[in-house]
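ARCHIVE RECORD
Type: protein–small molecule complex
Small molecule: guanosine-5'-diphosphate
Source of inputs: curated submission
Record status: active
Notes field left blank by submitter.
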Amino acid sequence: NLEVGIVGLPNVGKSTLFNAITKAGAEAANYPFCTIEPNVGVVDVPDERINVLAEMFKSKKIVPAAMRFVDIAGLVAGASKGEGLGNKFLSHIRQVDAIAQVIRCFDDPNITHVSGSIDPIRDIEIINTELCLADLDSVEKRQQRIEKIAKSGDKAARAELPVLEKVAAALSEAIPVRALGLEEEELDMLKELTLLTAKKSLYVANISEDEVSDYSGNDYVKRVQEYAAKEGSGVVVVSARIESEIAELSDEEAKAFLEDLGVTESGLDKLIKASYSLLGLINFFTAGEMEARAWTIVDGTKAPQAAGKIHSDIEKGFIRAEIVAYDDLIACGSQNAAKEKGLVRLEGKDYVMKDGDVTYFRFNV
Ligand code: GDP
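STRUCTURE (tokenized, with ligand):
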């Protein structure tokens, strides 16, 4: 499953948002094999298409795709120098696919800010600096090792050294690796280090509950958006308070509540969608009487590897995929009608999956 880590300074609304995520949580029965730790929340990825498919195929069960959020507490100014940024913190954050940084963009005199004032850019830079310092530490350790190996004439080590130097120089100026525009080759060399600042990242601007309908007057948000645009990161605007209220409601009630607020989707849904596009993810579907199910893959995945998401045996024994595009299927009204019109295609091992492919894999056991 895709995993997004939530970071941010204390008192910016991380726990509030995270609690909303856990409460909104996906049905545990759908994920029997993943034990849920207290700092992990699993949510359904909203995709209306799966309900439509379930109706068409009279499926007994609906299984949406899921996304995991990990609450990564413990990041404060100076953390990388002291105890704060311990091994436990690092091991959590190193595993995630993307990092969502919550930024306080609401004024509230009752809630103190760790630095005494509201200043989103300063906050972003505090966190980014800590992440850069943690990465610098990893890179420097690697440099020491690789230098020794390079001296013995090892070619790979010699090629890697200048990359490490370049990255170390940037990190010591608090420039994240993701902003360096490194070549694929260079990124491959760094892969093993699982650098934090090489991960995809987005900012979650946490605004006041009074502003969700219209935050055009929120200057903090504007500043975050400008900052993010410069480094090519995304911004999602939410009110953690509102999200925690929505999480208490049934689907119907939530819908009415959002309508009252004059917004079309919850902040959590926006966050999930933004994470999807940040990571270049798409969904394909399987549908039958048993269940209608959405599967997450990286855009560009070929049919056998997509089959591997379902089971490694299906990937190993892959013969062909029977595929119909979701829109074609809906336009025809049924799988049979789509077949008659020749819209159900047989695709081979080089087929690149598309978003919305309704798929049946043929395979050898
Ligand atoms: P954390 O330390 O980052 O996990 O922050 P918390 O989630 O504990 O939030 C800190 C305080 O800010 C709590 O008192 C929250 O109720 C409050 N808070 C969080 N989000 C909002 C919001 O959208 N509006 C307002 N007014 N307060 C919020």
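CURATOR ANNOTATION: The pocket of guanosine-5'-diphosphate is lined by residues 8, 10-16, 106, 108, 111, 206, 208-209, 239-241 (CB under 6 Å).
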